Amino acid sequence: MADRLNDKEMNIVKKSISAPDTLTRDEKTKLDYIKSKPVRVEDVLEMINTEYPVPTEEELDFTKRLIESQGTLKVTKEESDLLDGARIKRASLQDVVDVVMSAYKGSINSRYLDLKNQLFLVQIMLRDLVVSKSELKKLAKKLNESGDLSDEGLAKVNSAKLVLSKTDFSDAAKTRDDAYTKVTDEMNKQTELLDKVQKAGR
Asked: For 132, which DSSP code?
């Protein structure tokens, strides 16, 4: 049965693959002996993974979360080190597609948040700025009764069309449709990019 490399010998082999210039004289001497030693297939696979490391599930998950957050995720020193270690590793086509989809999802979420913010702004304007027709007429009536508004003034308030016009609704609808179109265009662009990535891997 072939002798298995011990941990110390395996570390020297890994070092000779990933950082050969850092080998000490003693390690170089031992390396010649180690190379002549029979090894198991699993040892060979471990050596290959030293040169072509595969990202761990933790590294891939964090990378996707970071991209999906559109740069808003706060990164700790440990997470930064995790990214530094992952960036030089190989990835499968599926890994690449997953990362691209994370960017796609992050872009959609960003646009969705923009629309929610616009809706919230409209709700605030309706609550704080838009005048109620009935309340305005009540105020005019009180002012007329107290002598602060003439009968002629009250008549003008009551006869005025104090509602949003068709033009107002049309302008609001156009603003909404423009926002939806912008989001749709962005989604289509992201889809085209994803299709290119998938085709390139075939």
From this structure: P
